[in-house]
Amino acid sequence: MSEADNVEVAVEATEAPARPEWLPEKFNTPEDLASSYSQLESKLGTSQDEMRQQLIEEFEKTAIEGRPDTAGDYLVPEGLDENLVNDNELFQWWANHAFENAYSQEEFEQGINMYAQALNANQPDLEAEKAALGENADARIEAVDLWSQKFFPEEYQDAILGLGASAKGIEALEFLMSQMSASSMAGNTGAIQPLNEGDLQSMMKDERYWNPAKRDNAYVQKVQEGFSKLYR
Question: How far apart are the first and last CA of the chain?
Fold first, then answer.
């Protein structure tokens, strides 16, 4: 082999390495492939961020879709006095809570109705309590009411009203009435009472007192005046 041949072989040996079999045809070198992948990865990352932001915005829009514009725009459920609830702190708190949590009008009303049901569950059944007092329940309740209004100062009337919401409460007040009547008679043995407790109780059983259809206003007034004289 001549010296020229040796030089040609050396030149061929120093040429670029053979193209890798795994390299796609559109890439000239592995470096081109790596650069293209990096660019693609960057574009995908940007698309994912945009997609994520779009989903968040759509979710927030859907979440508040049924919510009114302000907490004050929630409507008072039917059956509630609007003038009473507007100044109620608990109502205002619920309206603000509902608005902050994007509750709809329906969800707002559900919360109020659930509270009302829980509150009413602790209230006595007035019809049942009235039935427990017997046929002359109205007369007994009226007599206790008249006596309590005359005897107790105004600041105690709410407490008496709560006590009178049950049959046992009415009976307790009647017992108190009778005890005070007995005490009053014991302290005034020289005085003659035209009508005593027993007389008045008997008169209250008369239909002219407790039956609305046969009510005698003069007769009712006589009973009321009798109680007034007993407990004045």
Answer: 149
Question: How large is the angle between the packed helices 217-230 and 197-204, nearest 10 degrees?
Answer: 150
Tokens 């879709």, located at residue: 65
Name the nearest CA neighbour of 130 among 165, 162, 163.
Answer: 165
pLDDT digits (tens, 9 = 90+) for 114-150: 877 776 666 667 788 888 888 888 888 888 888 888 8
Confirm if 140 and 174 have CB atoms less than 8 A apart.
Answer: yes
Q: Is 0.70 surpassed by the pTM of this model? A: no
Total number of residues shown for the chain: 232
